[in-house]
Amino acid sequence: MVSTNQTNSQKIAILMENQFEDFLFQVPYQALKQAGAEVTIIGSRMNEEYHGKRGHVSCKPDDTATEVRAADFEGFVIPVGNIRANPFVVSLIGEAMAQEKAIAVVGYGIQVLIETDGLQGKQVTGLQSLRKDIENAGANYIGGPVADDGNLLTARRPSDIAILINSFLKYLKLEVKEETPADHQDHSFDWWKLAATWGGSSRRDIVNALNTAIIGERYTLEAFKQYSYRTRDDELRQILQEISTTKENHVQSLETRLYDAFNERVTWQAIGSETYAALNSLLQSSDELSILRRALGDIQTGVIDTYHLCHQLTDPLTVAIFDQIKEDLSQYEQRLAQLYRSRSGDKIQPPMPTTIAAVS
Q1: pLDDT by residue (tens digit) across 148-179?
Q2: Does residue 3 surpass a pLDDT of 80?
Q3: CA 101 – CA 150 distance, rounded (Å)
Q4: Over residues 77-99, mean pLDDT
């Protein structure tokens, strides 16, 4: 446990703009307040209320980047990237980096640092979609949940936020009331519990997400078994059987996490017979290309659903399972797409999923 003398409250600024990721503001804000810091929300103008994209959190700025100075604060948290369009923000953070202020960055916030031209030679992590931008800015992209390079700490997304802010508080020598690992790379610690005390995902949020993923994987497991039974294409059958085996592993991983971490079993009994009857009805008149189109559509649904789940929870261990599922399904999406193009010739039609989008 880290403790410090709280007589001189440290001043920390959080940069904000509209349509932020709720947890990326809520967790740092609550953590810093609980640790005794004086938190200032900095925006672009004073007469606007900012709303989180999930609709759970809103905030108003205390100051704007125009009038404050980097010297006014001991540290900065940057959870948004769209504020980089404000030149006063870029100038403020450029000054903060030059003065070696403590800076915690997560998600698209790294785009603000890119605009400062101050990432040259820095060790950072970030969203995979921003990797090239980060490297083009001269930084060394090392991946993983959190990277620390002296006063600069970076993270990818909500699942990493508790790890990031725990490291940020320790760097500032602010109090962390809960016992936490000395090494932020400790992958066995239940960081979600710490995040929950700071307004992150609740136990029920995580359990619901696991159940959503289990239901999706179980349904599509049965669907892909049916596809493999009905196809006469040997290459397609082999891929479909591989997908079925992979989905069985996914279900096992998800159910193990649900029980080991939360002592819960799947909260649904089974998908109703009507659902399977509808699937069988769809397949009665399906030719080879229709089976391919349905399989491709179902895989795409799974890829996007798990992508969204990866960005909605503050539980890194559960999100690591979602990451693996997304990676597996993305590889099968590519293989099915290649096979579909080779089989359909000039008669390309869009996929026909039997599933609905469960997460947005």
Answers
A1: 999 999 999 999 999 999 999 999 999 888 88
A2: no
A3: 10
A4: 96
C-alpha separations of 80 from 15, 65, 253 in Å: 7, 14, 33
**Residues ≥6 apart with Cβ < 8 Å to 306:** 213, 322, 325, 326, 329, 359
Q: Find out whether 120 and 137 touch, Cβ atoms under 8 Å.
A: yes
Beta-sheet pairing, 58-59 with 152-155: unpaired
What secondary structure does DSSP assign to 260-324, as a single string?
HHH----S-----HHHHHHHHHHHHT--HHHHHHHHHHHHHHHHHHHHHHHTT-S-HHHHHHHHH
For residue 210, give Cα distances in angstroms to 198, 242, 253, 271: 21, 23, 10, 16
pLDDT in tens, 199-243: 999 999 999 999 999 999 999 999 999 999 999 999 999 999 999
Give the C-alpha separation, 254 to 213, whole Å.
Answer: 8
Q: How far apart are CA 216 and CA 224, in angstroms?
A: 12
The β-bridge partners of 40 are: 13
Of 35, 38, 34, nearest to 14 (Cα)?
A: 38
Residues whose CB falls within 8 Å of the CB of residue 83, separated by 6 or more in sequence, listed in order: 15, 16, 17, 43, 44, 65, 89, 112
Least confident of 80-94, 188-202, 220-234, 261-275: 261-275
pTM exceeds 0.90 = yes
What's the whole-number average pLDDT of the chain? 92
| Number of CB atoms found within 10 A of residue 148's CB | 18
Tokens found for residue 339: 């096979």
CA-CA distance, 148 to 49, in Å (whole number)? 32
Distances (CA, A) of 102 to 45, 77, 360: 24, 9, 34
d(CA 36, CA 15): 19
CA distance 15 to 110: 12
CA-closest candidate to residue 51, choices 34, 14, 26: 26
pLDDT of residue 268: 58
